[in-house]
Design goal:
Elements lengths: L39 H14 L18 E5 L5 E5 H7 L2 E5 L5 E5 L3
Parallel strand pairs: 1-4
Antiparallel strand pairs: 1-2, 3-4
């Protein structure tokens, strides 16, 4: 019995069985809002560029709300040693930056000139 060959339309999306399917609508790049298009690394780069452009990494000054000049605070000196100085002295040194611990107490760090 001879084999009869049937001619059919190739299935769309099957490798080797035709070209890309054509969809109606907008062509071009997939918009970012669809959740497609950016890898995690690309998104990290975008966020870092935004952070640098908007000065997120620049230090900002803050200090304890208690302005009592005789209150003492720990101070880390330039050589790494810890001392205790009153608020008046810390404010007039001019080269200190305030930090706060996880427990909520403030300390100053002297910055090298």
């Amino acid at each position: 019995m001879p084999f009869q060959q049937m001619h059919t339309v190739p299935a769309m999306g099957v490798p080797g069985a035709g070209g890309m399917p054509v969809f109606a609508g907008n062509g071009g790049q997939i918009p970012d809002v669809s959740g497609l298009g950016k890898t995690p690394a690309e998104e990290t780069i975008r966020q870092l560029q935004f952070a640098h452009a908007n000065k997120l990494f620049e230090p900002q000054e803050f200090k304890p709300s208690d302005d009592d000049p005789s209150r003492f605070y720990y101070v880390r000196e330039v050589d790494g040693n810890w001392t205790q100085r009153n608020r008046f002295t810390i404010d007039h040194l001019g080269d200190c930056r305030w930090y706060v611990t996880d427990e909520g107490w403030f300390y100053a760090v002297r910055m090298p000139n």
